[in-house]
């Protein structure tokens, strides 16, 4: 076994701290796509373009028509622990934005070649910063909004680069992240290109239409709308009928306050609601959004924020279970009622 080397305790430099953090925040190209999309949505964008090259490893360029960044703030966007989204513990406990850690862009910039081109509505022209928070801010051109261009992911951390899978696999993960986010935001248009080819383009529309576009017609023809509230909890979206169930769990989309999550408690609650109508080897399909007071849920559990913790998890479980079960029961009752004896 290697003998541990002993060195005096030293403060790590900023670049290395960011590269260590990048291991958690940016485990693969799709994680970059997720962070950039969340930033665009937090900036109020209604139109987002995602351009990928070589599965995102070569390039991820995301443009939005959001509020942009003022030139004097541009270095801060790339600085560690710098955010416009929270300023206090109270803000953190009530956070309504998708981001708040202020470390995504700094982490990405420590393991890739990054540039930000941005223009606010009141600026005469766009501005650009290249590289890191130490880069110079120079005049540029472009429309209102922001483009973040990330090239050559892990070019300076070859050990991490080795963990990347094939272009097709990395692309698949990126496309999945785009689908997840686009599914929750029919009020925003998304366009996705890979190696110059347009793969998806979804215009602003209603939830019903966006979910058919993304989940396909099988789901569209076999889904039950749900919209139930109880106290501070609201569950809305669609539960797929048993005929829309799948052999794999890849048709399950759950959002908490607009954030895609994969939460054991929620998956279990929905699964239990299907128990009477679905064989044990089938997976229900659904798009469900749980909205609640941000103070009742902790999203600060993991850097990728895919896990959440509820203040009262029993109440959430019961609510989701009953809401889904009731809507499934209501249709089977209607179906039976309308069947001639
Ligand atoms: P966080 O999202 O947690 O605040 P990030 O590192 O992702 O941290 O972004 C840092 C800051 O840069 C954000 O707080 C925001 O003010 C600004 N920013 C990032 N992306 C955009 C964007 N697309 N449009 C406008 N501002 C942005
Ligand atoms: Mg962010």
From TrEMBL:
Ranges for domain DNA mismatch repair protein S5: 211-329
Keyword DNA repair listed: yes
Organism: Massilia jejuensis
Name of the protein in its database record: DNA mismatch repair protein MutL
Keyword field contains Protease: no
Superkingdom in the source lineage: Bacteria
Family per record: Belongs to the DNA mismatch repair MutL/HexB family.
Listed GO MF terms: endonuclease activity
Annotated function: This protein is involved in the repair of mismatches in DNA. It is required for dam-dependent methyl-directed DNA mismatch repair. May act as a 'molecular matchmaker', a protein that promotes the formation of a stable complex between two or more DNA-binding proteins in an ATP-dependent manner without itself being part of a final effector complex.
Alphabetical keyword list: DNA damage, DNA repair, Endonuclease, Hydrolase, Nuclease
Residues of the full protein shown: 3 to 343 of 624
């Amino acid at each position: 076994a290697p003998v541990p080397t002993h060195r005096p305790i030293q403060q790590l430099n900023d670049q290395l701290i960011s590269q260590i953090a990048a291991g958690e925040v940016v485990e693969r190209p799709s994680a970059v796509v997720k962070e950039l999309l969340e930033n665009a949505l937090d900036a109020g964008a209604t139109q987002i373009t995602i351009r990928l090259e070589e599965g995102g490893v070569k390039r991820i360029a995301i443009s939005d028509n959001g509020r942009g960044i003022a030139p004097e703030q541009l270095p801060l966007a790339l600085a560690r622990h710098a955010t416009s989204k929270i300023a206090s513990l109270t803000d953190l406990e009530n956070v309504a934005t998708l981001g708040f850690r202020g470390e995504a862009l700094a982490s990405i910039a420590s393991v890739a070649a990054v540039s930000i081109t941005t223009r606010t509505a009141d600026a005469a022209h766009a501005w650009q910063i290249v590289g890191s928070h130490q880069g110079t801010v120079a005049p540029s051109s472009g429309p209102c909004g922001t483009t973040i261009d990330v090239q050559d992911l892990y070019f300076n951390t070859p050990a991490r680069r080795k963990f990347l899978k094939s272009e097709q696999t990395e692309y698949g993960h990126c496309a999945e992240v785009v689908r997840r986010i686009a599914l929750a935001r029919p009020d925003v248009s998304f366009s996705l290109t890979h190696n110059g080819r347009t793969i998806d383009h979804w215009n602003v529309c209603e939830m019903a239409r966006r979910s058919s576009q993304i989940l396909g017609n099988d789901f569209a023809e076999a889904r039950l709308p749900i919209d139930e509230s109880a106290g501070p909890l609201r569950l809305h979206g669609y539960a797929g009928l048993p005929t829309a169930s799948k052999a794999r769990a890849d048709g399950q989309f759950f959002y908490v306050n607009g954030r895609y999550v994969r939460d054991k408690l929620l998956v279990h609650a929905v699964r239990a609601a299907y128990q009477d109508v679905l064989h044990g080897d089938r997976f229900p399909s659904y798009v469900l959004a749980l909205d609640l007071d941000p103070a009742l849920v902790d999203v600060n559990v993991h850097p990728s924020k895919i896990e959440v913790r509820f203040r009262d998890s029993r109440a959430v479980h019961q609510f989701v279970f009953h809401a889904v079960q009731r809507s499934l029961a209501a249709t089977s009752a209607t179906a039976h009622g309308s069947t001639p004896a």
